[in-house]
Design goal:
Number of strands: 3
Order of helices and strands: HHEEE
Number of domains: 2
């Protein structure tokens, strides 16, 4: 009689231990899923921020309408005569030079 009680208690303890392990495993899985969702959200927000910044810079490029503005914006001056400045979207602005007098 004593042995059956002991076996029964042992089985109950083992069952409780398995239940506790399963509960911990599920808890770890939920934490992993939560971390993955948070990481995906951060990546999404960074992508949207990058897109917004890129869009703003292209808007500023479209506001450039002359050689002086192009140079002030820091875009390259082409080695040409007259000097020209090129924006990243491919537009080229030439510097307006005064007409040379003939000296007559």
């Amino acid at each position: 009689m004593e042995k059956t009680k002991h076996k029964r208690r042992t089985r109950i303890r083992a069952s409780h231990a398995r239940t506790a392990r399963n509960h911990k495993t599920k808890k770890h899985k939920k934490r992993g899923e939560l971390k993955l969702i948070i990481l995906a959200g951060i990546v999404f927000l960074l992508a949207m921020l990058s897109l917004a910044i890129s869009n703003l810079s292209w808007r500023n490029i479209s506001l450039i309408s002359g050689f002086d503005q192009c140079v002030r914006a820091g875009y390259p001056i082409l080695e040409s005569y007259p000097p020209s400045c090129q924006t990243p979207d491919g537009r080229v602005f030439s510097q307006q030079l005064p007409l040379a007098s003939t000296g007559k």
